[in-house]
Amino acid sequence: MKGRVAKWRRAAANGHEIGNHSLNHPCTGNFDWQTPDTMLENYTLGRMEGELLRANRLLHSSLGVWPTSYAYCCGQNFVGRGTRLRSYVPLVAKLFVVGQAGFSETYANPRRCDCAQVPSIKFDNKKFGEILATLESAVADGSWLILMGHEVGDIRAAQTTSAGVLQKLCSHLKGRPDIWVDTVTAVGSYVAANVKHPVVRDPAG
Fold it and tell me: What are phi and psi of 109, to 5 degrees?
């Protein structure tokens, strides 16, 4: 980002949402590429909060925006291990409008979803036909679809969304006034303000 600040600023000015994705991308140590210093198993809630706040300040000082959404690194939302394991979803709920989970198996149900951990579907390395089928399925269910990807470019590269597929999807959506397309914060804010989630009471009192 630091080498392309002007381009990132233009993207933000054009309506793209700039979200928080942490400073050090901590994930489980079961990934061989993680170091002991960036393993979620070795994190605490205090350390995670500090990193998220520093990332927010960095993005504000560099790009002039305060992030209102967070994407969980590797789709994982815990710190610690064993009896000391803690969820950091409440922390994300405190700091952001939306927390975006990753590598999910389902769409978000706007009548039930937790905006601090909204499911998202993998976009990387998918063909347009696959994405279109996913889109139509979500529309039929009345679901909130978030497509999660990494780089944009050559589809043959790992964890890369094809630029051509992305362009086809955008062109398709321009002709679909029945589909609301917006940032995750805009949709999440609407869901939080307008949807009353069902409350299940504990029969034991």
Answer: -90, 110
